[in-house]
Design goal:
By secondary structure, the chain is α+β, with helices and mostly antiparallel strands. It has one domain. Helix content is 43%, strand content 15%. It contains 3 helices and 3 strands. A 3-stranded mixed β-sheet has the order 1-3-2, with helices on one face. The longest helix has 19 residues, at 39-57.
């Protein structure tokens, strides 16, 4: 990985219904986050940490994508609550990486004075 491309985009431009997404292509880590600043920045930080930890620990993008797409189908079938996160699912191959990334996201949210953000409520 030689480059990191982070972009804030409208939600409808995501690969699926999500606030943040990452993938590797052409020796580049691509990160997409939705929302306005500073929320998009927090989401992008989460995706960056999660992607790097997954790469470092051998959790493939393909495994993450397969889980996320399956989870999305389950959401659409109403098998989970609307606010369920695929990375919190015990079946997620990247659950540990996701949960650590949530901690980093919440720490920055707190430092920015966004104590009502996410799970900081």
């Amino acid at each position: 990985m030689n480059r990191i491309d982070i972009r804030f985009i409208p939600g409808e431009e995501q690969r699926y219904d999500t606030l943040g997404d990452w993938w590797f292509a052409d020796d580049c880590l691509h990160i997409r986050a939705t929302g306005d600043e500073p929320e998009a920045l927090l989401i992008a930080l989460h995706e960056l940490v999660e992607a790097y930890l997954c790469k470092r620990r051998g959790v493939s993008q393909e495994a993450v994508d397969a889980h996320d797409w399956r989870f999305q189908a389950e959401l659409e079938a109403k098998l989970h609550s609307d606010d369920a996160e695929p990375g919190d699912d015990p079946r997620a191959p990247y659950r540990r990486e996701h949960r650590f990334s949530m901690l980093m996201e919440m720490l920055l949210a707190h430092e920015l004075g966004l104590d009502g953000y996410g799970i900081c409520k």
